[in-house]
Design brief:
Elements: E1 2-7, E2 14-20, H1 23-40, H2 45-61, H3 63-74, H4 78-96, E3 105-107, E4 112-120, E5 123-127, H5 133-146, E6 150-154, H6 161-172, E7 180-182, H7 187-196, E8 200-206, H8 209-220, E9 225-229, E10 235-238, H9 244-256, E11 268-272, H10 276-288, H11 308-315, E12 323-327, E13 341-344, H12 351-354, E14 361-367, H13 370-377, E15 385-389, H14 393-402, E16 407-410, E17 429-430, E18 443-451
The structure holds nicotinamide-adenine-dinucleotide.
Length: about 450
């Protein structure tokens, strides 16, 4: 038996010791899920909907406990953690509307009737990263369960606590044994088995682009369905005609939320040259004012990084050629703290401009005009998210259409709503989660022709 310690990143204290799932246990769970899938797909749509609603209600009743677990395990601020637990509840409620509305179609043909069915795939394997353990899990398991699939879920090694609790709550809500199983453990053991086990019909992977590519190659061996939600290097583009005060005041939220450990983090700020100096003047107090500290304190805005190793990785992005413009608070004492940091890159090839930092470091650069802004924004292999600040509606639409990314916001930094589609262009991913078509990604379309003559 292998065990792993779970560490609170704000205190560096061990909060739990978790037993890692072995390959044999993973196989047993997949086989259990496979048997359960045969029954789950036959559950009447109204009953499946009722069970998902009950699951949502049980999550709601345990919302504070889930939030506190996330604070202790991941160092998320309590405000964010409550939002994340609430997001699981809301996703489940939304998905509870799916079973009765998962329609096929009837297509007119000569000599018979032509029907299409949306059938569940079977067992779905969901692999989750450590940055948003609850919502990212729910974006996969909500629609997958609603469409009649069973789920095996692997949380990240560093952050298994809330997923384990969600597994217990699913049983408490009455989901049948084997329909939703949580398997904490290693990516290279549990996650890999999702990729190679033939009974797993789809893998939903959220994580780094590097591992995502390996998953895709592995799934190709069985032409296994795959959804990939990967890294990002999103641009926050500020035009001279924008409300500069608002753009600067909210820019820290756009990149430092969750200590920058956010695939949608706007880790490049592109500012039109004519207002660059003014924007930097406004940005400085906003960054210095970010309250960094104890994540359990209701007033805290930014917590620690997830681990010491990750902090080292983040620090390496501030290269000798990179000028640090200013930084924010950094608490003393134990905890994997890193201050909000604003840098002016020395060259367009600086890693801080080309690679995902996944920490509270943002690079600010200037641009001349719309074409220049688009050129810089798109000069990355990623394409997940981004913001555009302008008061010109024509420009807002032109630039939105020009940025190669799946999720953009104008005069805002919001990225995710469970009822709108989410996913990346280019190497930020493959497929979409959430939104009205979320469940279709967990079905096969079957066409049946019935001759009537
Ligand atoms: P990671 O790729 O290291 O790990 C993600 C998950 O994959 C973990 O559960 C891990 O155990 C598992 N894993 C690792 N190797 C595996 C293998 N060989 N086979 C199967 N599973 C394996 O990523 P991370 O460091 O946990 O998360 C950070 C990354 O996730 C960032 O790049 C971030 O941008 C990305 N992310 C993307 C989105 C999105 O929606 N696009 C959302 C959140 C995070």
């Amino acid at each position: 038996m292998t065990t792993a310690n779970v560490v609170n990143p704000a205190t560096e204290q061990v909060v739990a010791t978790i037993e890692a799932t072995t390959e044999a246990q993973t196989d047993a769970a997949i086989e259990r899920a496979h048997r359960a899938a045969v029954r789950w797909r036959e559950v009447a749509p109204g009953d499946r909907a009722r069970l998902l609603r009950r699951f949502a209600d049980v999550v709601d009743a345990n919302l504070e406990q889930l939030a506190q677990l996330e604070v202790a395990n991941s160092g998320h601020t309590i405000g964010n953690a409550r939002w994340e637990a609430g997001n699981v509840r809301d996703v489940l409620h939304y998905c509870a509307g799916i079973p009765e509305r998962l329609l096929g179609s009837q297509i007119p043909v000569a000599g018979g009737v032509n029907i299409t069915f949306q059938e569940p795939l079977g067992v779905v394997g969901i692999i989750v990263p450590w940055n948003f353990p609850m919502p990212i899990a729910a974006w996969g398991f909500g629609p997958a369960l609603a469409a009649g699939n069973t789920v095996v879920l692997k949380p990240a090694e560093l952050t298994p606590m809330t997923a384990i609790r969600l597994g217990e709550l699913a049983l408490e809500a009455g989901l049948p044994e084997g329909v939703f199983q949580v398997l904490p453990g290693k990516g290279t053991v549990v996650g890999q088995r999702f990729v190679t086990h033939p009974a797993v019909r789809k893998v939903v992977f959220t994580g780094s682009t590097e591992v995502g590519k390996q998953i895709m190659v592995g799934c190709a061996q069985q032409v296994k369905r795959v959804t990939l939600e990967l890294g990002g290097k999103s641009a926050n583009i500020v035009f001279a005609d924008a409300d500069l005060e608002r753009a600067a005041a909210t820019a820290p939220y756009g990149v430092f939320d969750n200590a920058g450990q956010d695939c949608c983090a706007r880790s490049r700020i592109l500012v039109q040259r004519s207002v660059f100096d003014r924007f930097m003047e406004l940005l400085e107090p906003a960054v210095r004012g970010v309250r960094v500290g104890d994540p359990a304190d209701e007033t805290t805005e930014m917590g620690p990084l997830i681990s010491a190793a990750h902090r080292e990785r983040v620090a390496a992005f501030v290269e000798p050629s990179t000028k640090v413009a200013f930084t924010g608070e950094r608490p003393d004492g134990p905890g994997f703290w890193y201050p909000p940091t604003v840098v002016l890159p020395g060259a367009p090839t600086d890693r801080v401009l080309t690679e995902e930092v996944f920490g509270p470091v943002v690079a600010v650069v200037s641009f001349e005009d719309e074409a220049d802004a688009l050129r810089i924004a798109n000069a990355t292999e990623y394409g997940l998210s981004g913001s555009i600040w302008t008061n010109d509606v024509g420009r807002a639409l032109r630039v939105s259409r020009g940025v190669e990314a799946g999720n953009l916001s104008v005069n805002s930094h919001s990225s995710v709503r469970y009822w709108t589609p989410f996913g990346g262009f280019k190497q930020s991913g493959l497929g979409r989660e959430l939104g009205p078509d979320a469940a279709l990604a967990f079905t096969e379309t079957k066409n049946v022709f019935i001759a009537t003559t």
